[in-house]
Structure formats: C-alpha cells, structure tokens
C-alpha cells in the first residue's frame, strides 16, 4: 500500500486530482514547447531549482539528498521534474494574456459553489 497511489490526498494535503491536473499541464506545456521549437534556458531551470530548494528549505546538499532519499527520487528524476516546472512556468508566462482573458468566465462558472451555499441557507 502506497500513500502516493491509494489515498486521494497526497503528502502535504494535495489531492490526487490536483496532482494529476498539474502533471497534465506539464505534459501539455512540454508538447507545446516541442511543437513550437521552444526551449527553456539552462539558467532558468537552475533558477527554478534554486527557488524550489529555498522554498522548501533544501539549502544544503545534505538536506536535498535526504529529501530525495525520503521521496524516492533520483537526482536525475528531480532534475527532470524541475525542468518540467520550468517549461510549465514558461508556458504560464507565454499564455498569460489568453488565460487572463478567459479567467473571468471561469470564475463565474465556479460561482456555482456560492450559489449552492446560498440555496442551502434558504
């Protein structure tokens, strides 16, 4: 039995659905970058790696190595995931104007939760 597969909630309180959506976004961002011939500079990948490590207090090699061992990640696997985050970040910036244009309607759709809560109060 693995907490990463059998529980709808992952470590840190993330849901499996949320994790699957993030993986899907990463896959789509990578495919889009490949199709468009876009690359993320190594310096940007290194910057994302530094941000991640600082965000989660993995500031020494020893602490990072301990985390990788705890998580069951190899250095190569960690590097691949950080690269994926960098590609996703690049896509986020590239598509920001389109996302921002569509966001108001998506927020309106999510008002269904507020609508249901108000219906219950009646």
Structure description:
- The chain is an all-alpha fold.
- 76% of the residues lie in helices and 0% in strands.
- The chain has helices at 3-6, 16-36, 42-55, 61-71, 75-94, 96-109, 112-120.
- Helix 3 (42-55) crosses helix 5 (75-94).
- It is extended and about 55 Å long.
Note the topology.
Elements: H1 3-6, H2 16-36, H3 42-55, H4 61-71, H5 75-94, H6 96-109, H7 112-120
Helix pairs in contact: 2-5, 3-5
List keywords for this structure.
single chain, 122 residues, mainly alpha
Average pLDDT across residues?
Answer: 91
Number of helices: 7
What is the chain-wise order of helices and strands?
Answer: HHHHHHH
Largest pleated sheet = none
Distance between the termini: 44 Å
As a percent range, the share of strand residues is under 5%
- Unreliable sequence segments: none
Radius of gyration: 18 Å
Overall body shape: extended
The count of strands amounts to 0
Helix content class:
over 70%
Q: Which structural class should the secondary elements be placed in?
A: mainly alpha
């Amino acid at each position: 039995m693995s907490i990463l597969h059998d529980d709808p909630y992952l470590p840190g309180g993330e849901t499996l659905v949320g994790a699957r959506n993030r993986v899907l976004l990463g896959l789509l961002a990578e495919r889009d970058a490949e199709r468009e011939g876009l690359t993320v500079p190594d310096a940007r990948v290194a910057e994302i790696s530094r941000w991640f490590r600082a965000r989660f207090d993995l500031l020494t090699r020893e602490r990072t190595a301990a985390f990788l061992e705890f998580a069951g990640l190899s250095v190569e696997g960690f590097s691949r995931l950080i690269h994926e985050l960098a590609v996703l970040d690049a896509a986020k910036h590239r598509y920001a104007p389109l996302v921002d244009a569509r966001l108001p309607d998506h927020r309106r759709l999510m008002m269904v939760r507020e609508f249901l809560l108000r219906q219950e109060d009646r």
